[in-house]
Here is the input.
Amino acid sequence: MEIVIVQSQEQAGKLVADTVAALLKRKTDPVLGVATGSSPGAVYKELARRVEAGELSLRHAKAFMLDEYVGLSEEHPQRYRVVIDREFVEPTDIDPANVSGPEGTARDLVEACADYERQIHAAGGVDLQILGIGTDGHIAFNEPGSSLASRTRLKTLTRQTRQDNARFFGGDIEAVPKHCLTQGVGTLMEADHLVLLAFGQPKAEAVHHMVEGPVSAMWPATALQFHPHVTVLLDESAASRLQLASYARQAWESKPKWQGL
Here is the structure.
């Protein structure tokens, strides 16, 4: 993994936006993987700023969401499609019809997951996947114990994840759905470039396991150690448990900046 320790979330957002811009120069119709949660917020804000300034355009891009809650109404403010529309689609010029997500209101959830896998495959796969990480090491909604070869499927959320996400539901854990549809670890690993963002002390333990620990289903993010192109952007707090933090700083500072992430 390439570890980049940043001074702020805004700096991370600019670096990822630079990477999207470079991708757009190589490919006019890229496929992006978009995540919800607080970690990618600065990325979406910077992309929106550049679209508004005419510096880049996403009108020919496609995007696939990581996951979706099961059972929330289509209008619910915390339904992930609503969140992505609000934070990513509406502020940029991407065509809403080109943004897809797992269908958490489907009658047949198993078939909805299989169909989502087919959609990603038909689009040629994801070029750049944005990720966050949970305090328990989950990526997307692949909770501890998930198969590292898993595909898009129905999952039960752990109480820890529901507690972490309760802040989006007015602090009420009982309002957080108990089930979700999520891309599997195996699905995520097929993206060309994985970019994971983590900020704050609560993420430090998970980041330590992900980067320096043994690969284990109990910390699903450790599977990323097997991917050939992973970039991890951290602030000082999230990097505080890394034994090789100083080496990561030296490697990034000495890297030719034209290479990007």
